[in-house]
């Protein structure tokens, strides 16, 4: 039964024009349990849908525990191109604007994944929009309300579980009111048991990247993030940089010659480097926190952002012989985000450097998602009443 507090939350959202009507769980079709419990799904242990898919970071985490993607939604045409290039064997098309897709058109699934747009809640996004006098959070009618599209799909399909991902600032945005609304909709309105945790990708890759993961189960499976142990490994930037000494296969798009030296096009111009240094001094004198992130091989980088293509200021790699620092190459960004292994180059980057930087800056640290998926796995399989196919003798 829907609790009154949850209904009040949804009614408020309706009054604000954020959703067309109350988000109430749809009646569960009598055949749903049979479909979820008995389908083979071409050898997969479970099925999932990938909303606001980007370039497939969440998907990679759940494929690693035996899942199969049956529906993808991503509106950006350049991200679609990268997604298709790296998942060429899909038996479904990439759907565009999720707001124009009826929940009934989406296949039945066991798990819903959604990294709903984070810009309305991110520190950078809020600061920029405040400066421009624009709305942010749920007041951002173009992106902030997309959470309710996730909610209506959950309400219709009632998946066994879901994973939502967003920036850490979601927790504190609007003095916690935004996150409280999200929790109320998920628990009181939709009836799911949830837990959440802010996790730093630093445990898997040399980058400080804190993201909140929200896990929900239709039936309480006793899932707790507190039981999840994070690795003690401390990767350094050297693990993902082009060594430039001939020890890796040359990547002609990003490096030069047999040695694999990074192309000079990634080195900042003297003009830009001087500008960044002056800008930093100006803000430090004023007591502001702006500054570029100058890093060496033994360091850990700041958070890679979608604006990295502009000047690369948050992660600038030191160079020898008095040269100005350089940006990371898109290949190094793929490694930094865990789409490629250290020194790997398997991830296909079919778009321009500008689009690649945007895509990696908007994505998730893949090994972190894999770790969350692994922690979720026994609870998910208990919810589905099955064991992994690999465990069946």
TrEMBL record:
Domain of life: Bacteria
Annotated EC: 2.1.1.37
Reaction(s) this enzyme catalyzes, per UniProt: a 2'-deoxycytidine in DNA + S-adenosyl-L-methionine = a 5-methyl-2'-deoxycytidine in DNA + S-adenosyl-L-homocysteine + H(+)
The entry's keywords: Methyltransferase, Restriction system, S-adenosyl-L-methionine, Transferase
PANTHER family from the UniProt entry: TRNA (CYTOSINE(38)-C(5))-METHYLTRANSFERASE
Protein name listed in UniProt: Cytosine-specific methyltransferase
Leader sequence segment: none
Source organism: Brevundimonas basaltis
InterPro entries named among the record's database cross-references: C5-MTase, C5_DNA_meth_AS, C5_MeTfrase, SAM-dependent_MTases_sf
